[in-house]
Amino acid sequence: MNSLPWWDPPVLATLLAQHYGKQGLVWLDGDASNLGRHAVLAAGPEKVLRCDGLLGDPGAADPFEALSAAFAGKSGHWLGWLSYEAGAWVEPAEHWQTPQMAVLWAARYSVVIELDLQLQQLQLLGEGPRHTELTCLLQEPAPLIHPVKTSIQPEAWHWLSGRDRYEQQVQKVRTWIASGDLFQANLTDCAEQTLSQPADPLALYQQWRQCCPAPFGGVMLASSHEAVLSASPERFLQVDAQGVVETRPIKGTRPRHSNPELDADAAAELVTSPKDRAENVMIVDLMRNDLGRVCATGSINVPQLVGLESYPQVHHLTSVVTGVLQHPMDTAGLLRACWPGGSITGAPKIRACQRLSSLERIPRGPYCGSFFHRRPDGRFDSNILIRSLLMLGTRLRVHGGCGIVADSDPHLEADELGWKVQPLLDALA
């Protein structure tokens, strides 16, 4: 029987921040569903790995090689993020834009705290002095914590492109598709603003998880001024102890309704939509191809094709693709083979990245990248950083995107962007 008492994740995150400091605090969250059953928290890293800049930039290092070297050891848990622009190390090209945030930020922890959100059980994973220290800390009574809320009014956000320009960009993508240059592209935009003083990322994330719980959400604080928050419903790559890989690409979205009949109609319309189903299947084919580079011949399967998954704010279409790694421990090689994720780029992937860069006015940074957790035994899990907030000092950016195909309606795609992003902005208010 577990000897450690249960701690509510927000209280535990605040306790760790108070005891070890916020720098290096990681909270990989869940929503207590079967997919999001577990949460992992860690603080006070024993080693930090950081890569800035892109191929060709002075002093820039290959983030995949850095991860490969880090993962070669079997001590400690590695948790961190990899930015979208790490793709510059996969397919060197001039179109990649250098992000202002880290291309790779990762930290090693000798001990992490894993929470079973369904059974409300807590355990420490790891060993050494930190295990003893945390055991004593978690036996103490939970402190009274009064989180400081930050209220950011929705009208204070400024959209980088705006609705009219986004619709024009959608039409441009459709023109490329009609000419045979692309089959699909995931076009993004972001809402941004600058605060008068820095906000507490833990407080902001707690507001998010109350309104928009997600199975693959979380928050990472690289420093006092650099943090990433996510309410992601999408798993990118998971590897089990036997080297079995699972990816769960999402394509196809409809808003939820408080009226049960309207909500059911929206779900049914999504499931039967030829446009959304085709969009999803394209990415399934892309991910099968990516996994085929590093998985055993004949091991690629699609156990779920275009299935409905429903979340508090939206319905999604999700597929599941699996394979078996040729080299079970080579998760850095798996990341390189599949980077960036197909669901947030398009098809063909490299051409989609090139075209999107010509339309999107800023680098995506960690948005459309990934949070990841690599365990000492080689098990690995990661998300796609959609529905994300990037914090750099007092500047905030909330990103969202839509998959554009031949029969996309620019007006409806702009509506979909709102379905995805507006609940996040409302939660911060």
What does the model show?
With 429 residues, this protein is of the alpha+beta class. It has a single domain (9-428), classed as 4-Layer Sandwich (Anthranilate synthase). Helices cover 30% and strands 28% of the residues. It has helices at 9-20, 63-72, 129-139, 163-178, 201-211, 260-271, 274-292, 331-338, 349-359, 410-428; strands at residues 26-28, 38-42, 47-51, 77-82, 104-109, 111-116, 121-126, 158-159, 184-194, 218-221, 226-230, 235-239, 244-247, 250-255, 301-310, 314-324, 346-347, 370-374, 380-383, 388-392, 395-404. The strands form 2 sheets. Strands 1, 2, 6, 7, 8, 9, 10, 11, 17, 20 and 21 form an 11-stranded antiparallel β-sheet that branches. Strands 3, 4, 5, 12, 13, 14, 15, 16, 18 and 19 form a 10-stranded antiparallel β-sheet that branches. It starts with 8 loop residues before the first helix and ends with a helix.
Secondary-structure blueprint:
Layout: H1 9-20, E1 26-28, E2 38-42, E3 47-51, H2 63-72, E4 77-82, E5 104-109, E6 111-116, E7 121-126, H3 129-139, E8 158-159, H4 163-178, E9 184-194, H5 201-211, E10 218-221, E11 226-230, E12 235-239, E13 244-247, E14 250-255, H6 260-271, H7 274-292, E15 301-310, E16 314-324, H8 331-338, E17 346-347, H9 349-359, E18 370-374, E19 380-383, E20 388-392, E21 395-404, H10 410-428
Antiparallel strand pairs: 1-2, 1-10, 2-6, 3-5, 4-5, 4-18, 6-7, 8-9, 9-17, 9-21, 10-11, 11-20, 12-13, 12-19, 13-16, 14-16, 15-16, 18-19, 20-21
Number of helices: 10
Q: Tell me the CATH topology.
A: Anthranilate synthase
Q: Which strand-content bin applies to the residues?
A: 25-35%
- Stretches with pLDDT under 50, minimum 5 residues: none
Query: Regarding CATH, which class?
Result: Alpha Beta
User: How many strand segments?
Assistant: 21
Question: How helix-rich are the residues, as a percent range?
Answer: 25-40%
- Tertiary shape: globular
